[in-house]
Design goal:
It holds the Pfam family YccF. This is Tll0814 protein. Keywords: Membrane, Transmembrane, Transmembrane helix. The structure is a single chain. By secondary structure, the chain is mainly alpha-helical. It has one domain. The chain is 70% helix and 5% strand. It contains 4 helices and 2 strands; from the N terminus they run ααβααβ. A two-stranded antiparallel sheet has the order 1-2. Helix 1 packs antiparallel against helix 2 and helix 3 packs antiparallel against helix 4. It is globular. The model has no long low-confidence stretch (mean pLDDT 96).
């Protein structure tokens, strides 16, 4: 079921979402300060390509000081916009029964988009 879900996801917007994250990540990597954020954006892009069959996993160092600082900076600059985007599309897709599995993926990506450091989709 996850293979079929991932294929449908890619066709109806998942590919463009993943590419958008990756392009943003490459752009952030052009500056030295933005490299950690760019790498995380590229990882989010890979996660957004095939989200079905995976879950958000917290790393052992998810609550370290540096991770929290990076999450706060990410949240203030881009995290809130990414999270609101995934929330919007998740709510729109949750209106129909067919869209519920795709809404769940958006809600999963919303968590990663809000506070990505110390978390991964596995």
């Amino acid at each position: 079921m996850s293979l079929l879900g991932n294929i449908i996801w890619l066709i109806f917007g998942g590919f463009l979402t993943g590419i958008g994250y990756m392009l943003g990540g490459v752009t952030l990597c052009l500056t030295i300060i933005g490299i950690p954020f760019g790498i995380k954006a590229i990882q989010l892009g890979w996660s957004a390509l095939l989200p079905f069959g995976k879950q958000v996993v917290e790393a052992p160092d998810a609550n370290s000081t540096l991770t929290m600082i990076f999450n706060i900076l990410w949240l203030l600059v881009v995290g809130w916009g990414i999270a609101l985007n995934h929330l919007f599309w998740g709510l729109i897709l949750a209106v129909t029964i067919i869209g519920l599995p795709f809404a769940q993926q958006h809600f999963k990506l919303m968590i990663l988009g809000l506070l990505p450091f110390g978390r991964q989709l596995r």
